[in-house]
């Protein structure tokens, strides 16, 4: 005869003999993913909210959910792999999950510029404009001087040719 298999569940304070059990293809997301909800390491951090059935994790209004290297609004338990997901992004096992204020304000993709940045852009633009005008004026002056030199040289050469031609005529 084959030996009979027995199963036991060990808890922190006792060992329980399992008399009835069933197999399942579904994962228990909280147990499997072991997410870290500790907020002490992050500035401006607020703990994430977990739904009563532990199938969803989200944040209060105005906050973004940070999970692993991703940001979203809600992550949902995927019982097929035991991970919490937001579309194609997932929170890796043991990942830190917390809520933070959105770093973008004034609409998606908008960034604030400091007063110093604005002043720097204005001053830089004015300086570039001044340099362009000075360069243009110098080029025009150089061009005019070159034309004057060429016309003076041409006149002198033409007069000498005329004088030379007159000498031979007389």
UniProtKB/TrEMBL annotation:
Keywords annotated in UniProt: Membrane, Transmembrane, Transmembrane helix
Domain of life, per lineage: Eukaryota
UniProt feature, compositional bias: Basic and acidic residues: 160-170
Region spans: Disordered: 148-170
Name this protein carries in UniProt: Sushi domain-containing protein
Keyword Transmembrane attributed: yes
Transmembrane regions: 118-140
């Amino acid at each position: 005869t084959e030996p009979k298999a027995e199963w036991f569940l060990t808890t922190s304070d006792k060992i329980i003999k399992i008399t009835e059990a069933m197999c399942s293809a579904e994962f228990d997301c909280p147990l499997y993913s072991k997410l870290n909800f500790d907020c002490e390491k992050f500035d401006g951090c607020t703990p994430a909210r977990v739904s009563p059935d532990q199938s969803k994790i989200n944040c209060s209004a105005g906050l973004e959910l940070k999970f692993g290297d991703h940001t979203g609004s809600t992550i949902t338990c995927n019982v097929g792999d035991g991970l919490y997901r937001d579309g194609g992004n997932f929170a890796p096992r043991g990942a830190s999950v917390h809520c933070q204020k959105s770093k973008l304000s004034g609409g998606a993709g908008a960034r604030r510029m400091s007063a110093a940045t604005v002043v720097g852009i204005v001053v830089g633009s004015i300086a570039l404009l001044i340099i362009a005008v000075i360069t243009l004026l110098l080029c025009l002056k150089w061009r005019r001087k070159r034309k004057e030199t060429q016309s003076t040289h041409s006149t002198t050469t033409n007069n000498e040719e005329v004088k030379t031609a007159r000498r031979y005529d007389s």
